[in-house]
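Illustration: TetR family transcriptional regulator.
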Amino acid sequence: MTGPAYRRDRARLPAAERRRQIMEATAQLIAERGFWGLSMQDVADRCGLTVPGLLHHVGSKDGLLVAVLEHRDAEDARSLASLLGVDDLAAPWTGGALPPGVGLRQMCAALVRRNAGQPEIVRLFAVLEAESLAPSHPAHDYFAARQEHILATFTALAKDVTATPHALARQLVAMMDGLQIQWLRAPQTNDLVQDWEDAAKVLFADLDS
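Result:
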């Protein structure tokens, strides 16, 4: 059985538009199949390109994965900044300094709201994060650093509300990850935002937000 046919689009798109097209097609395919199930031919077909044409833009399969992750990080940082009402934001997964006035509970709520609006992207990261537990995976170092940066950011923010900031940071990340997996499996019966608010009442009980 063959998959859907995609038209070879010989139109020369502007470089930025073509790159965005490649990033979005790749993200969708990885969310569906995982990185190991991804083929460059599939990405090329989705974008109306030949494989050599695709390689001209991304260099290699590993290079494509890195480009997708960097693209999503930039998009998510802009979205998160908007939710937090700030002009610029060094997202917690990059290790940069946060703007003043952003509290831990506010940051967590914004992250959950952002994720609730993009289930396909959350699925992409969930699949890749699980796959990248293998040291040989090309995103292994990326996700190790990502987790370290998020924990460091949450720990720094938690110092204002608890005497055990690192423990609270780990609990918050674990709760977010767990709720997201349940939501992805049954989005019709799970409300990610409401589930997080219910969990936050417990995790932040007796703490100043």
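Reading the tokens back as a structure: The two ends are 55 Å apart (CA to CA).
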